[in-house]
Amino acid sequence: MDLYFSPLACSMATRVALYEAGAEANYLEVDPPTKKVLNDGTDFRTVNPIGLVPTLRTDEGVVLTENAAILQYVADRFPQSGLGAAAGIERTRLHQWLCFIGTELHKGLFIPVLDRKAPQETKAYALEKNLSRLDYLDNYLKGRDFLLDHFSVADAYLVTVINWTMATPPIELAKWPNVKAYYERLRQRPSVAKAIAEEFELYKAELARKKAAA
């Protein structure tokens, strides 16, 4: 399968999940400004017209988009990994957390704060409105190792999003000690540590390319 990604973007969650599952994949880096696939110079929009990562092409040639859908596909494709949840209430709780991370944290909180073109008023509004989501998460994680009763694709997504606090000074993890402890604990997990280390190096290379082109 082929995973189209950009370094340290939300696509890193799928990399974590694939590493956790011990699955083989081709990792195809997409340059965010140009939408070019760096491996071969092709236009990524011929694969995903919206131009967003992650995008996954399965071994059967099916193209999947949207982070939550791709993560659930990986969990179902590799059931031995334990990344998913059994049908019933546990599966529903997995969906619940994937939706919460995607809407309340990823899009609601972090995207406005990370957007360099967003007005300061927009960033301030996003912080005022959505920091309470971290309060909720901090309370939930008290005494818990994972979002479910085991490491799942929801944790792969959450640790990816929390990792963005490195680039968002207004969101200081020390204010949410249970979230901070969760993040620090999961960063030691081999699949997470490997993904962050590899994508950080690719991100530094991306910054170097931008500097050279300026």
Automatic annotation (TrEMBL):
PROSITE patterns: GST_CTER (PS50405), GST_NTER (PS50404). GO terms for molecular function: transferase activity. Transmembrane segments: none annotated. Residues 1-82 form the GST N-terminal domain. CDD domains: GST_C_Beta, GST_N_Beta. Keywords: Transferase. Residues 87-214 form the GST C-terminal domain. This is Glutathione S-transferase. It comes from Bradyrhizobium niftali.
